[in-house]
Amino acid sequence: MTPTTAIRLSGRDTLDLLHRVTTNALRDLAPDEARGTLFCDFRGRLLHRALVIRVGDEVWLVRNDASSAPLLAHLDRQIFREDEKVEDHSDDPALPPRVQAGLPPFDEAARIAAGDPAHGHEIVDEFNPFEVNLAHEVHLDKGCYTGQEVLQRLVTYESVRRRLVRVEGSGSVPTAPSDVTRDNERVGRLTSVIATDAGWSGLAVVAFELSTVQGLTVGGASLSGLEALPLRRPIGRAWAAAG
To answer: What structural domains does the chain harbor?
Structure first.
């Protein structure tokens, strides 16, 4: 069973604190509203992704693809003051309906088909949000947060060099993560993979300029398909994406 996270936060500064340490704008989150947001390190690399849900005066952080312990530890180190209360309800069978709606059953095949990043695969500190198509959870006009300076430079100088794609191949299923290579040179990283009737399919983070599978291999086996995902855009100022 895939681990889940359901953390309840209460305190007058909760939304303000989350607004200042994550990538999305959260101060104006209305009751029963939900927004995805990202926790990055100072390099703009991904640490955590969560759906922020407001239920009355409570704020919940939920995700259906990772356990709560790493996020709880991050919160404890980074953001909370004495008037903030943090409670782990990940194993609670009686979550509020609005919170339960944010925790649908995890489906790896559907996730890969949709091109959605997951913890331990695309949501790792090897990548920044733009490289794994999470730009829509980055707000460019909200002010400072951890990693903001680096992410803003990537936008300003149009210097995003990698993107998330769907890939497929025949034969045995490769291991993920594995390098994607062309002429013995690394050009990307296979991050997720599942078996299919025709072989396998997965997600990979590859150089922006790659547009065909010609010469691409994973673990010595040739790729038979590569499909770029529609680029998501940050919130706020227009983003001229590289490529």
So the answer is: 5-106 (3.30.70.1400), 107-243 (3.30.1360.120)
